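User: what does the whole thing look like in 3D?
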Amino acid sequence: MCADIIDGNTIASKIRAELRIRAQALAAQDIQPGLAVILVGDDPASCIYVRNKAKACKESGIHSEVYNFPGETPQDVVLEHIQTLNANPKIHGILVQLPLPPHFESRRIIAAISVEKDVDGFHPCNVGALVTGHALFYPCTPYGVMMMLKEHSVLIEGQHAVVVGRSNIVGKPMSLMLLENGATVTICTSKTRDLAMYTQTADILVVATGKPCMITADMVKTGATVIDVGINRTATGSLCGDVDFATVKEKAGLITPVPGGVGPMTITMLMSNTIEAAERAIHANAF
Ligand SMILES: Nc1nc(=O)c2c([nH]1)NC[C@@H]1CN(c3ccc(C(=O)N[C@@H](CCC(=O)O)C(=O)O)cc3)C=[N+]21
Ligand SMILES: [Mg+2]
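Assistant: Here's the predicted 3D structure for the full assembly of 287 residues, as structure tokens:
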């Protein structure tokens, strides 16, 4: 068996074309969706992501502002800036690039973002809403994964989904979204005892551990859908995922590549959440 590839770039451009139409409809009402991105420090990977986000905004008709604070900025300065953005009617979405420098408490920073502008879906209120099935914003990476599954008509209801990774950004919300769609969900970590025993029974396997090539062909069921959320930079500067793509693609039914898989979808769903926030702001202002 040789897997079909789930092409993140192709699905992302299709969704972005739809988003541009929604942005044009907003423009006709004199509203331009606005996203503020806060970056603290100069981590090279974070800088690349933030640049990609700004570029995607431009392509989708979204106004974007990037605030790059020096790494040693006091937390209170950033908290105050978030308050200013919360009150700015031109800004519909606020994203604070993670990870933050060690002297920051990410929990406090995230909690300071207005719930209506939390396009990452990381605010505790939005996490609670997701848990109870009333999400305001789906976190961008798992949202992108769900769109990829939908685009390829992957059956979710009744299927066994195994998520490897338990982060607040990917693993936990991913598990909840698969559960919401009727999957039987198993959450593992990279340290799960006899991990292969679980992954071998997965109809849908989502891997987000940050451990390069940790999922090998022997760990995957023939015909499974394999989603690789990992982005690891090798010593030579190239990118690789958490899945050993070369061997797993010979056994899986569907598989995402790295790069060109989940990454472009993450940014696209950020654009989608920002446009959604701008559309909601019109209705809120109508009263
Ligand atoms: N508050 C916050 N929200 C995030 O959503 C967030 C974050 N912090 N911190 C970092 C992670 C990572 N992330 C990526 C987005 C796009 C690509 C992406 O476009 N990847 C390209 C390759 C890009 C490259 O060449 O490095 C691809 O996979 O094809 C990757 C990773 C968003 N994150
Ligand atoms: Mg995200």
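In plain terms: Residues 48-49, 52, 95-98, 120, 140, 231, 239, 258-260, 263-264, 266-267 surround 5,10-Methenyltetrahydrofolate (ligand 1) (CB under 6 Å). The chain has ten helices and eleven strands.
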